[in-house]
Specification:
Elements (H helix, E strand, L loop, with lengths): L5 H16 L5 E2 L2 H7 L8 E4 L3 E7 L5 E8 L2 H16 L1 E2 H7 L7
Antiparallel strand pairs: 1-5, 2-3, 3-4
Length: about 110
């Protein structure tokens, strides 16, 4: 995230390496690119399955999950697939991200 936080630094230094070893392809994108690529009305948490189904997560004001909506091969699923393609094209792999990442040190 921008600005970097101690929590994110800890996550990068301790967590993402384990995820990579387990086969996860973590990607990183700057907030500036994200906001330029994705209109505010399309932002949110979603899971995309084979570009054919999307599950949009709904959260309360304090961040608790309260619902999920399944979309199958509809306009919203197509939009989520388009967002994913755009973000992946602009994102960095973990190894590329780490070349310029400056962690915050907690003493």
């Amino acid at each position: 995230p921008e600005p970097n936080t101690a929590y994110f630094s800890m996550s990068v230094e301790w967590g993402y390496h384990f995820f990579k070893d387990a086969g996860q392809n973590s990607r990183f994108i700057s907030k500036k690119y994200f906001e330029a690529l994705v209109p505010e009305c399309d932002r949110g948490d979603f899971w995309l399955f084979d570009d054919a189904a999307a599950v949009r997560m709904i959260y309360s004001a304090n961040g608790e999950p309260i619902n999920r909506l399944l979309h199958r091969e509809d306009r919203l699923t197509e939009r989520f697939a388009e967002i994913r393609r755009e973000l992946l094209a602009e994102s960095q792999s973990l190894s590329d991200f780490l070349k310029t990442f400056v962690p915050i040190r907690r003493d």
